[in-house]
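PT: before anyone asks, these are the final sequences, not the draft ones from last week. 353 residues across everything. Please model them as a single complex and drop the result in this thread when it's through.
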Amino acid sequence: MSRALFLSPKSCKLLLSSFLLFCNLLIKLILTFNEFDISRSFIIMEKTCGMKIFRNFEEILDYAIDKEMEEIEFYSNLAGRMDRKHVSVLFHNIALEKTGRVLQLENLKALKAEFDTNDVQDMKLAGKMVDIDHQKSDLSYQEALILAMKREKEKFKFYLEMSECAINEECRITFLNLANDEARQKLKFEIEYDEYVLIEN
Amino acid sequence: MKEFNSLDDILDFAINEEQMAADFYTDLAAKMQNQEMKEIFEQYALEEIGHRPKLEAIKKGKQYKVAEDKIVDLKIGDYLIDVDAEKTNITYQEALILAMKKEKAAFKLYNDLATITTDMASKKVFLMLAQEEAKHKLRFEIEYDNNILTEN
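LR: through. Structure below.
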């Protein structure tokens, strides 16, 4: 008789963390054998076991810019699909704000900012950014808001951690401001959720 | 106070709420064993204290202009949080929930004030204050996700 194996959420989490740690060590080992300067590289581990390796700070900024671009597309798309005008405007405005943020990140690249490489290596960035199915075409209004809140929270953590790694003051402040922007946007979605979704249900 | 009758009423309410939040965080910081959260509560208490002079400057400056009918639209109940004053031994979980509610209410207030004001300098201050409250709220939420939800 076959016996199903049940794991509690805690065990699953532990298993996943161990696996990610193992992947991290394996990559480091491979890179070391290939005479890659690991001390200068930054590793971003993602929940789906995808792993990103950045050789310099500029590549992290490019990653952040790519994420912002994805979100501009995501929010613009959502804005076009929302029946309620004020929600459509909310998503549209956030897409616009993110466009401004791309410019800020581009400016940081020009600054040639310095980062504490040890701190950056400790970061487990963007953990949940990829496990959200934003390609789903028939998102309900409630799902769209939940998705948006999750994304904003993860971006907040991302920018906050980047600010902690920054040595250059201007760069640190820019990242803090970006984190605060994400917090504000998250809370706007949350209030919208409280007022319209929770009340309607 | 049942309703806002003037701009000064609103600003006095906000100043009082800031002081209460600062006291609340200072008190929580003193009870914290986790050093990181202790520092966060201390830092946020300082930031809340720092909001007071900004609000007082707006009040003294009298440059803050808004139509009377807009003031009536602001309902004090939307920005008040029910707190059981009798309860003295709140848990960490309850403290975080209360802190998140307070921050959300403060965010709403400043955001609404920023929306109705026509004076650009005051609008900027209100937006900055709203942004800071949003940051506090989200930081507490992350602490809640990491330490309360995982424990339960």
